[in-house]
Design a protein that fits this description.
5 helices; mainly alpha; single chain
């Protein structure tokens, strides 16, 4: 009788060990499946990161090569303009135009310039700005519609690009021209201490532009 009881107890222990072994096997299987899913997810993340990094490297290289070529071109052009005297020639042309405009009595009395130097400076500013815009236009087009579009960063159409360029030029003339003439006015009015008044002038202009540009000027673009 005792031997039978011992045999039953031994069978029960053996069955318990089998069940425990099966449970451990199931846990290991579940852990293996979870680990495999985690490893696969990490591998996909690493692959995506490497792909983005490679694209960023290619984009940075293209931008750097473009910047180097453009800088070399600008240096060569500046040396050529300096050698042939382009800037003095433009100033002489602007002085002639300013004298003709001033002699026409085109402006009302409250808009007349007390000194032709202001009108000459404004004319030179307009001409040089137009000249620089035309000179940089091919490079800007290549950067926007070749490099940026090739890498998927350009969302601008050719029409929108042209409209924004015209807006930028007009705003630079309407804002920069009067500021430039005020700049000259402050220098003449300030005397020997003009640099102090110029510092105060630029400080006020910067404070005003920090408020005006985001609120009124930037919304004009991309429309």
């Amino acid at each position: 009788m005792l031997s039978i009881v011992r045999g039953v107890e031994a069978d029960r222990k053996a069955a318990a060990k089998v069940v425990e072994k099966d449970e451990d096997s199931d846990k290991k299987t579940n852990m293996t499946s979870t680990d495999e899913a985690t490893l696969e997810k990490d591998a996909n993340l690493v692959e995506a990161t490497i792909e983005k990094f490679s694209k960023a490297q290619v984009y940075g290289q293209d931008k750097m090569e473009f910047s180097i070529v453009k800088s070399l071109f600008d240096i060569i052009v500046e040396f050529m303009f300096l050698a042939i005297g382009t800037t003095p020639y433009l100033w002489v042309v602007c002085v002639g135009y300013a004298s003709q405009v001033s002699s026409l009595n085109f402006f009302p009395n409250f808009l007349k310039f007390e000194d032709e130097e202001y009108l000459q400076t404004f004319c030179f500013f307009v001409v040089s700005s137009l000249f620089d815009t035309v000179r940089s236009l091919p490079w800007s087009l290549w950067s926007t519609f070749k490099i940026e579009e090739h890498h998927g960063f350009n969302k601008m159409t050719l029409r929108l690009y042209a409209v924004d360029k015209v807006k930028s030029f007009v705003l630079s003339i309407l804002i920069g021209g009067p500021l430039l003439m005020l700049f000259i006015k402050v220098i003449k009015w300030g005397g020997d201490n003009f640099y102090v008044y110029l510092w105060a002038f630029f400080f006020v202009v910067q404070m005003v532009m920090m408020t005006v540009v985001p609120e009124y000027i930037m919304p004009l673009y991309n429309k």
